[in-house]
Amino acid sequence: MAEQVKLLSPNELLRNKENPRLIFREEELKALEESIAHQGILVPLTVYADGDKYFILDGERRWRCATSLALSKVPVIIQPKPDKLQNLMMMFAIHNARKDWDPLPTALKLEELEKEFRRRHGRLPNESELGGIASLRRGEVRRLKKLLALPLSYRDELLQELEKPRSQQIITVDHVIETTKGAESLRKLNIINVDEEETLRRSILSKFRTKIINNTVSPRKLVKLSQAVKRGEVSVRTAKSVAHRLMANSGYSIDDAYEESVERVDFEHSVDQLAQRLIVKLEDFGRRGYEVSDQTKALLSRISALVRQIK
């Protein structure tokens, strides 16, 4: 049986408190509002009835625009009332493919979904289960859970940043996640302590704001520094020195710290890995007894000349 479309007043509809979308940017609503003003609402809203009230499952932006335009009626499709877990699952299933969904509000709602699952089943869901009921890939579940591990102050700051037009946003979720990973890698090797970890994170985010650091993934170079320390290629003293300069000097970038500490050994490490893979391939080539082509001979001669030059 085909779903029937009904016409309801926007005043009869209420937002769904389980909607993971919390941010509605003015410029995006304006563009949608102009479209609705010219063409009307082309896709009906999806709602469920609870007594004499109707709650929105899909179409909150259309509803907001209809209210702003003072439309007398909007088209809706009415679904059966879900319980809380079903409601959360439906909201994720409806919206998870939307590219304009902001990750932090989604993470906060994922936390609610996890709690509701525990209330229902007496245990927390594992990653696969949580991804399944939220219609999310496991990798995305892990990313969202990293956001939930951030201090509340960072969540609040990110939500405030999300309220701004996209063109005015400077600090994003990715900036905070990458910075957190970089600082954490140094703290785990006792290059910095717990208090310094927070100071370093704040310093790096400040430098993102001032454009001293302009590459979102620059903090990954701190992870490379930590790995070099762990391998014994860079001293703890050197690592501590550049980490403290990052905290104390507002004009000192991660690139500066990388160049002064680990750039050379990191480059050598990557060359070592490539050389080891090449050796394995060449040994296998010899065992197979393949005839060497002219092109391969030329490349091997070039490699040999470069090796002699470097040595």
Quick overview:
By secondary structure, the chain is an alpha/beta fold. 61% of the residues lie in helices and 8% in strands. The protein folds into 4 domains: 1-81, Conserved hypothetical protein from pyrococcus furiosus pfu- 392566-001, ParB domain, CATH 3.90.1530.10; 97-164, Arc Repressor Mutant, subunit A, CATH 1.10.10; 170-261, no CATH class; 266-310, no CATH class.
Termini Cα gap? 78 Å
Share of residues in helices: 55-70%
What is the alpha-carbon Rg in Å? 27 Å
Protein structure class: alpha/beta
Output the helix-strand order: EEHEEHEHHHHHHHHHHHH
**Biggest sheet details:** 5 strands, mixed
Uncertain runs: none
Number of domains: 4
| Molecular shape | elongated
Write out the strand line-up for the largest beta sheet, numbering strands in chain order: 1-5-3-4-2
Number of distinct beta strands: 5
Number of helices: 14
Strand content: 5-15%
Commentary on this structure:
- With 311 residues, the chain is of the alpha/beta class.
- It has 4 domains: 81 residues, Conserved hypothetical protein from pyrococcus furiosus pfu- 392566-001, ParB domain; 68 residues, Orthogonal Bundle (Arc Repressor Mutant, subunit A), CATH 1.10.10; 92 residues, no CATH class; 45 residues, no CATH class.
- Helix content is 61%, strand content 8%.
- The chain has a 5-stranded mixed beta sheet with strand order 1-5-3-4-2.
- It is elongated, with a radius of gyration of 27 Å.
- The chain starts with a strand and ends with a helix.
